[in-house]
Amino acid sequence: MSMPLPFPLRAGRTHEVCGLGATSFACAVAATTSGPVIWVSERHRRDGLNPRGLLSFFDPARLLIARGKDQTDTLAVMEEALRDGSAPLVIGETPKAISLTEGRRLQLAAKQGEATGLCLISPQGGSNAAETRWQAMPIFERDLREGVDAPRLRWRQIKNKSGPCRAWEVRWNARDRGPEILSVTDCAPEPG
Q1: Which segment of 145-154, 168-177, 178-187 scores lowest on mean pLDDT?
Q2: Could you tell me if 115 and 81 are in contact, meaning their C-beta atoms sit under 8 angstroms apart?
Q3: What are phi and psi of 83, to 5 degrees?
Q4: What pLDDT band is residue 3 in, cutting at 50, 70 and 90?
Q5: CATH 1.10.260.40: does it fit domain 14-46+53-133?
């Protein structure tokens, strides 16, 4: 039996992800695209992406990093990049809540540029305009040994405007740069 893949995310739309595995989820989405990936975050943040860590997902030479002064600036850069459409995927780190107006602006820009947007949000920071919202979490194994290069992850849709919500349990295959699907289950969307 073939299990449905969660990717690619619907193009021409913006999506959201929260949880401890949000960054790895975004990298997994990037692995399913070709061409440049634009990653936008606030410049005051001390943590950043490590190109060596991206190798398990995609070639870091594809990554263009932009730094905004604050979330308003980050959203503006995302909007312009989505509208332009030169990069098929635009990822933005948005730690504060996204208003409905901001979310709609991103959706319109993604549609115009035929690009995919992905916002890394806090659990309460999403916009009703998002096409899908995901919760990405690592699955901690009791027998986890040092050097394990295929972590287990759970990607759960908590909102889906185009169909039922599902949850995927995957093991990331760094050699093939893709998910090994372990299970797929239907799940209930979050209320609200």
Answers
A1: 145-154
A2: yes
A3: -65, -40
A4: low
A5: no
CA dist., res. 136 & res. 157, Å (int): 9
Strand order, beta sheet including 152-160: 63-68, 37-42, 89-94, 116-121, 14-18, 132-139, 152-160, 165-173, 178-187
d(CA 158, CA 173): 24
User: Cβ(7)–Cβ(104) under 8 Å?
Assistant: no
d(CA 181, CA 192): 29
Cα 67 to the center of its chain, rounded Å: 18
**CA trace torsion 84, 85, 88, 89 (10° rounding):** 30
Q: What is the largest CA-CA distance in the chain?
A: 48
Q: Please name which of 80, 46, 48 lies closest in space to residue 65, comparing C-alpha atoms.
A: 48
> For residue 1, is pLDDT > 50?
no
Instruction: Give the mean model confidence (pLDDT) for residues 18-30.
Output: 94
Enumerate the domain spans of the chain: 14-46+53-133
